[in-house]
Amino acid sequence: PQEEEKTTEPSAITPVETGIALPTSKPVDMQDRTQLQMALQSGDPSQCDAIKDSDLKVVCAISVMDAAQYRSALTEMDASLCEKIQSAETKAQCEADIAAYEKESEDLAAKMDAYTKESELADAIVQKGDVKGCAQLSDEQKSDCEMNILVNEALQTGSAAPCEKASEEDIRVKCDALAPKAS
User: Fold this and answer.
1) Domain limits, the chain
2) Looking at residues 163-174, what average pLDDT do you find?
3) What's the maximum distance between 2 C-alpha atoms anywhere in the chain?
4) Cα-based torsion angle of the residue sequence 115, 116, 118, 120 in order, rounded to the nearest 10 degrees
């Protein structure tokens, strides 16, 4: 029987792929390398059993379990799950990703809170009918505030005359379009 040719080459598998640094001086059998890649891609640690090299088999199992734990931590957004990751690099990346997400969530919550407060203030100003009060709002809400007040006045008076008090032409045009027309 013809003997199967065994090809080996220095390990080019990086810590990023496995989450664990492999000894670079030890050549990795191509079949083992392929099996490692299949296990990492599938997330199935049982595929590591087909790896002949005992060190690489352990690295494979740890890497597959770390990857699953990393995904769970990100899915749950729970940094405490990162603690179960054995690879220091993967654990650090997991913690950094969750911290970045939490920071982004906090920033978004703060923006939403500020927007809600400003919307409530705008509603109160419109209720009072105080066009000058609109000046304390952001540019984004200032025009809407003024237009709402002027349109309310126009509807109450039955005339487009209040629209003439608009501070900007586009506000006046929009107000005129919404105001009652003289019959």
Assistant:
1) 8-100, 129-178
2) 93
3) 104
4) 160
